[in-house]
């Protein structure tokens, strides 16, 4: 019996994608080789998590200064504060879901949504995919909203791909998981933060960023919402060009996240952070 088809592996060969993959791998290798990482990787990871959460919240409409995110302890006072709080909780939770993700992506996604929306959204909608007629709140992503039956089918297909594993580079798998969840918006709220947390899980669980020191969310925020939405439109089109453009966009965001972490390492080395 032949090996099961690996549709994600094909994406790794699209024009420009191998170069994006190589660029990200080299950047990761450089930051992991920084002398600060030998003894202070936990501090770097904690700072990366904070900055990543800030970036994800900014994309979801709560663009707070980093120091405000660092300083605040009350995240329940208004919509922006709740968005920042959700992003912080998701970033912390992502690292706890690596083994669950590999065996049951649907369970991991339900947990991510519960962590983000629990106590905020209608309790009946938390932790489960939306049903027909239920509204979707949160950031607008510029692509048509699929109906509930399409969401269910595509989520099942995505879960099958994750469980089966792929020979595709981690960057490609992470970009597809991120893009698919963002395009589907499977939950009634916090879909963007959940999609970005799932990307983080893939990047960490794949071994590309095993210590979770690269806040790709920073890069996505730095590139801006307009470019994010434009690139997602390419993903949603399903064309080879659109898919390659989305993967390249995700690669650029990861590269900018590495740059952010390199700056953190250098600040720690100087004793300035």
UniProtKB/TrEMBL annotation:
The Fido domain extends over 104-249
Q: Gene3D superfamilies this protein is in?
A: Fido-like domain
Which protein is depicted? Oxidoreductase
- Taxonomic source organism: Streptomyces humicola
């Amino acid at each position: 019996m032949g090996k099961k088809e690996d549709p994600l592996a094909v994406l790794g060969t699209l024009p420009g994608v191998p170069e994006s993959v190589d660029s990200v791998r080299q950047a990761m290798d450089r930051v992991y080789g920084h002398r600060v990482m030998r003894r202070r990787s936990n501090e770097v990871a904690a700072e990366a998590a904070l900055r990543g959460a800030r970036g994800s919240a900014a994309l979801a409409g709560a663009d707070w200064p980093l120091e405000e995110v660092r300083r605040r302890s009350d995240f329940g006072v208004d919509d922006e504060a709740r968005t920042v709080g959700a992003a912080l909780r998701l970033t912390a939770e992502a690292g706890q879901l690596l083994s669950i993700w590999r065996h049951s992506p649907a369970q991991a996604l339900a947990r991510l949504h519960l962590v983000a929306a629990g106590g905020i959204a209608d309790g009946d909608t938390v932790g489960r995919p939306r049903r027909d007629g239920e509204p979707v709140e949160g950031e607008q992503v510029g692509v048509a909203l699929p109906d509930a039956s399409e969401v269910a089918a595509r989520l099942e297909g995505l879960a099958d791909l994750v469980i089966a594993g792929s020979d595709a580079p981690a960057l490609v798998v992470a970009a597809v998981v991120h893009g698919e969840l963002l395009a589907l918006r499977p939950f009634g709220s916090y879909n963007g933060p959940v999609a970005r947390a799932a990307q983080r899980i893939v990047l960490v669980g794949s071994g590309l960023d095993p210590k979770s020191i690269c806040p790709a969310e920073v890069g996505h925020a730095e590139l801006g919402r307009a470019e994010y939405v434009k690139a997602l439109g390419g993903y949603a089109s399903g064309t080879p060009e659109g898919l390659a453009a989305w993967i390249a966009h995700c690669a650029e965001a990861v590269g900018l996240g590495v740059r952010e972490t390199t700056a953190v390492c250098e600040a720690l080395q100087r004793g300035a952070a």
